[in-house]
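We emphasize that the prediction below concerns an isolated chain of 361 residues; any contacts that depend on oligomerization or on bound cofactors are therefore not represented. The input was used exactly as deposited, without trimming of termini.
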Amino acid sequence: MSGSLKIIYSLHRPLSEPIWICKWVCQFINSKECPKNISLLPISFYKFLVKKLASLYAKGKFLPVMQKGLPSEFAIKTNLEFIQSNNGILDSKLHAILCKRNNNVERTVYSVYKAASYYINLTYRTFDLFDNKFNLRTEGKELTKIPKYPYSISAKTKAILFKLILEKDANFFIPLCIALKLTNSKYEVLNLLFPFIRNSYEVIKFDYSRSSNVNYIDVRLAWIEELNVLDKNRHIRRSFLNYIDSNEEYRNIYHTSKLALTAVHSQAVTYYKLRKDFINLYMTVSKTESNADGFVSLYKIMKEMHIGYVRFQKFLSLFYKYEHRESYHIFVSNVIASIDRRKRFNIGGTEGLYIKLAKIK
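Result of the prediction step, given as a token string:
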């Protein structure tokens, strides 16, 4: 099933990749400054980017939401001075820096050059807005007609970019917007969204560490903020929802995702309440009643939580699944098996009566 899915599987980090920058790339492609050879595009666009950002920073009208994921004003000033001081030999100097960085200036130049390359890849490879002969597709042409150096992102630009996102990422982006309505906790969004994608779409590419998954979320969260996709109540804004409703595929994704995620979230609310109680009780009991090796009685915690064995066992299974090696290292002990006949708890395949948590920093 994953072959037909609309999901962007690769997004560069640590940059947030502002999606509005695609407009600048398209406008550059449509300009006389654009080289005829695509191999020369990164250096040419790098120079264009530095000069235009320097101009916007100097005027002091650059909106904060547009600056996210862009090189800082200091970095742009450093790069502008580098370009001006190496006129005529810039290409060779850049090539040397790409091979090796010897000081802070060269590292800053490298960082901005890589950012320019990321923006090209986002426009060219991710959203297919132009081909290797610099032919702009329809949406790319539309972006070139919008004023070149805006101090905000126009409604028309937002509409075009939203259309592009859904074209490439509807199966991820729409469920993400729905999950953000259900909870404003990034931690809970992760635990809602990625299992949903893996289980509903049979996608295993996102079965990575939490840090990797956070990266995928962060880039899209930046896009949602840039385009102002959600209103103050975290609903998808009417203009964007109308576009989703106008397309049968997107409409099906929306309704299916909303139904499934709402059901999962209801179950998750119960889990997070139990998790909070469990962690608090573990911390309290561990200060006074842990054994010599730092283990705490699971039966003691269960009694204080006022729940039965079956429910507590189910919670422990989920706790291990979600938290082990993500938030905590979880250790289980069964050292007194010969004198304690109580039923053991199964945690991650290990049976025991005692638990120890080591928080991952």
